[in-house]
Amino acid sequence: AGLVDEAGGRRATVAEAREHLRAARACLDGVDLAEGARGDLLTLIPFLVDRTG
Protein backbone atom coordinates (compact mmCIF):
# COMPACT_ATOMS: atom_id res chain seq x y z
CA ALA A 1 0.00 0.00 0.00
CA GLY A 2 2.89 2.32 0.74
CA LEU A 3 4.28 2.00 -2.77
CA VAL A 4 0.86 2.71 -4.25
CA ASP A 5 0.68 5.90 -2.17
CA GLU A 6 4.20 6.92 -3.15
CA ALA A 7 3.42 6.40 -6.82
CA GLY A 8 0.28 8.55 -6.57
CA GLY A 9 -2.14 5.67 -7.01
CA ARG A 10 -4.36 6.56 -4.09
CA ARG A 11 -4.48 10.22 -5.10
CA ALA A 12 -5.43 9.28 -8.67
CA THR A 13 -8.09 6.85 -7.47
CA VAL A 14 -9.67 9.42 -5.17
CA ALA A 15 -9.66 12.02 -7.96
CA GLU A 16 -11.38 9.55 -10.30
CA ALA A 17 -13.95 8.67 -7.64
CA ARG A 18 -14.71 12.35 -7.09
CA GLU A 19 -15.32 12.77 -10.82
CA HIS A 20 -17.82 9.91 -10.74
CA LEU A 21 -19.56 11.45 -7.74
CA ARG A 22 -19.81 14.81 -9.53
CA ALA A 23 -21.50 12.96 -12.39
CA ALA A 24 -23.85 11.27 -9.91
CA ARG A 25 -24.83 14.65 -8.47
CA ALA A 26 -25.54 15.93 -11.97
CA CYS A 27 -27.73 12.89 -12.65
CA LEU A 28 -29.72 13.59 -9.48
CA ASP A 29 -30.52 17.03 -10.87
CA GLY A 30 -32.30 15.36 -13.78
CA VAL A 31 -34.42 12.98 -11.71
CA ASP A 32 -37.77 13.84 -10.17
CA LEU A 33 -37.17 12.91 -6.51
CA ALA A 34 -38.80 14.06 -3.32
CA GLU A 35 -36.62 16.81 -1.90
CA GLY A 36 -36.00 14.85 1.29
CA ALA A 37 -34.78 11.81 -0.65
CA ARG A 38 -32.59 13.97 -2.87
CA GLY A 39 -31.15 15.71 0.17
CA ASP A 40 -30.41 12.38 1.85
CA LEU A 41 -28.53 11.15 -1.21
CA LEU A 42 -26.56 14.37 -1.50
CA THR A 43 -25.66 14.09 2.19
CA LEU A 44 -24.34 10.55 1.70
CA ILE A 45 -22.29 11.22 -1.43
CA PRO A 46 -19.26 12.82 0.29
CA PHE A 47 -18.90 9.84 2.63
CA LEU A 48 -18.37 7.52 -0.33
CA VAL A 49 -14.95 9.03 -1.03
CA ASP A 50 -13.96 11.04 2.02
CA ARG A 51 -14.50 8.33 4.62
CA THR A 52 -11.60 7.26 6.78
CA GLY A 53 -10.77 3.97 8.40
Descriptive account of the structure:
It is elongated, with a radius of gyration of 14 Å. It contains 3 helices and no strands. Helix 2 runs antiparallel to helix 3. It has one domain. By secondary structure, it is an all-alpha fold. The model has no long low-confidence stretch (mean pLDDT 87).
Beta-strand percent range: under 5%
Whole-number count of domains: 1
CA-CA gap between termini: 14 Å
Instruction: Report the structural category.
Output: mainly alpha
User: What oligomeric assembly is this protein in?
Assistant: single chain
Low-confidence stretches: none
Number of strands: 0
From N to C, what is the helix and strand string? HHH
Q: Helical stretch count?
A: 3
What is the general shape? elongated
Q: Radius of gyration over alpha carbons?
A: 14 Å
Largest sheet: none
Features:
53 residues, single chain, 3 helices, elongated, mainly alpha
List the helices and strands and how they pair.
Blueprint: H1 2-6, H2 9-29, H3 35-50
Helix pairs in contact: 2-3
Summarize the structure.
This protein is an all-alpha fold.
